[in-house]
Each structure stands twice: as C-alpha cells, then as structure tokens.
Design a protein that fits this description.
Blueprint lengths: L12 E4 L4 E2 H5 L3 E6 L6 H12 L1 H6 L2 E7 L3 H15 L7 E3 L4 H5 L14 E6 L5 E7 L7 H16 L2 E2 L10 E3 L5 H7 L5 E4 L2 E4 L5
Parallel strand pairs: 3-4, 4-5
Antiparallel strand pairs: 1-2, 1-5, 3-6, 6-7, 8-9, 9-11, 10-11
The chain binds benzoic acid.
Length: 211
C-alpha cells in the first residue's frame, strides 16, 4: 500500500556511507529528510547532493538530519563524494544509503516502473521526531529538486506544530501567517497578542508568532 501523510515512516536497516543504520534509531529525536536519487555519478544528482551539503547548517538549525539513497553500493557512493566536493565545493557530511536490492526504495515507493524500471525517481520524505511522514514530494529524474523549498516546508511544519496557524502561499520565515479558522476571535485575542488583520472572517493574518 502506498504511503500517505501521517503514516509512520517504515523502519528499516541499511548499509550507508557512515556504516549500518536502523532508520528510526538513526532519526532519534530529530526530524529527517530521506531523499532518493536515481544513481551515482550522474550530473543532476551531483548538483543536488552538493547543494544539500551546502545547506547542512540550515538543516542543523532546524534539528533535521538528511539521508540520501541510491541503488548503487557504498564504495561507489564514497568515490562519488570526492567529485561532489570538487565540482560543487561542498562534500556531504550526511549518510547515503546503498540500496542495491531496492529494499528501501520499494518500501517507500521510490520505484516508478513506468518512468524507469531500474533506478529510483527523486523522492523527498520529511519525517518528524515521532516518525510520522509530514511531506512527500516526487520529481522526475530529469528535474533537480529545490531544497530551499524543502527547508521552507520544514519551517512551516515546525511553526504550525507549535501554534494554531497555517502559512499562506509562498510564505517564508518572518512573513505574516494565517490564524486557522477553528480559532474564534475571542480565543485569538489571547493567542495572538500582536493582533491580526481580517480580510474575510475566514482569512485573518497575524505576524509570525515566534518571531
Ligand atoms: C542525473 O542525475 O543527472 C540524471 C539521472 C537519471 C536520469 C537523468 C538524469
């Protein structure tokens, strides 16, 4: 059965560039981004892994651990890291799963045979500390992902877990957020002391509460 938002992320054991892991134990009490790339030594994947490595500090700030996956073996992943450092200026410090038998890829629906029978598509799973799947995105092999967008969604998830707000279109850190319709104006007075603008009774904008 395919995975859905809110499902528990399937646990697994796997070999990675940083040794064997049991996925849930590896996540611990942090958030995780699990992302697949079709294969090693390919150009788009090289730029993606370099960019995620460059964003390491941003993921750390949000208590997010990243982990990549491809069906190639650990030795291949390790050799490729040097090319990533050379061409992208950043070497991944996060582990990359080796999944030659596609055990993890099949568990997470990363194989899309009508697109490619052999290699994974580009998937991204954001998983919270309770091991629940909070975001799933799937990209075709020929399109590199936008990891700034992944960070943006993580910011929204972490904010909206803590406050009864939702984030509007294209929202970024520091911008106004929406008071969820289930909160009455009476409750909002206590919860949002900075006040709000009512554009419609169901559309109330308030400054980001944790700023
Ligand atoms: C790439 O990462 O460059 C790539 C991988 C598979 C198909 C197309 C491009």
């Amino acid at each position: 059965m395919s995975l859905r938002l809110g499902d528990t992320a399937p646990d697994f054991t796997a070999e990675t560039t940083q040794g064997p892991i049991k996925f849930h134990d590896w996540i611990g009490d942090q958030w995780a981004v699990l992302f697949s790339h079709p294969r090693d030594y390919t150009p788009v994947c090289t730029t993606e892994l370099g960019y995620v490595a460059r964003l390491q500090g941003e993921f750390d700030k949000r208590k997010v651990k990243c982990i990549g996956l491809s069906i190639d073996p650990v030795d291949s992943h390790k050799g490729w890291m040097a090319d990533i450092k050379e061409t992208q200026g950043h070497e991944p410090k996060f582990p990359i799963i080796a999944d030659p038998d596609r055990k993890v890829a099949n568990l997470y629906g990363m194989m899309h045979p009508a697109h490619d029978e052999v290699y994974t598509v580009r998937t991204v799973f954001v998983i919270d500390p309770k091991k629940k799947i909070r975001l799933m995105i799937t990209y075709p092999q020929t399109t590199g992902r936008n990891f700034d967008e992944i960070l943006r969604v993580i910011d929204s998830l972490q904010l909206t877990d803590g406050y009864r707000v939702a984030t509007p279109v294209n929202w970024k850190q520091g911008e106004d957020v929406i008071i969820v319709p289930a909160v009455t104006d009476e409750e909002a007075k206590a919860k949002f002391p900075k006040g709000w603008k009512t554009l419609k009774p169901y559309l109330r904008l308030t400054p980001q509460p944790n700023k």
